[in-house]
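Let us work through a complete example step by step.
Step 1: write down the sequence.
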Amino acid sequence: MATKKIDDVFSIASIDPAKFSESFREFAEKGAAQTKEAYAKMKEAAEDASKTVEATLESAQAGSVELGLKAIEALRTNAENSLSHMEALLGVKSVAELFELQTAFLRKQAEVVVEQAKGLQETSKKVAEKVSAPGKSAAEKAMKSFKTV
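Step 2: predict the structure and record it as tokens.
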């Protein structure tokens, strides 16, 4: 049977409590400093995220207004064209003239609709870029901070 030899039973009493409390204090201070630093970083990240969301929502709101105005403009143009066409149809004197007016109206309306679709597409693209810009810059900033760490 192997026994462990203990030189002095009271050797544990020779540990200096001042050294123990000093090392414990250093450990606690280091932990508190790291916690404060982590909290500051987390707070900054939360504030940045909040600003990003706010900027994104503002861009989305402005963009939806812009798209809405563009759509209203298209509807107004189409309504005015249709009313003008109806007035022209009231003055028709023959079936041939009716077909001629109708064909010209449809051709013109198709061209107008294509132009309106292009305008809405361009506006939508600009709005999408504006809405995604804050998130994109926040992501780039986050990636830079990861690279420096």
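Step 3: interpret the result. The longest helix spans residues 17-90.
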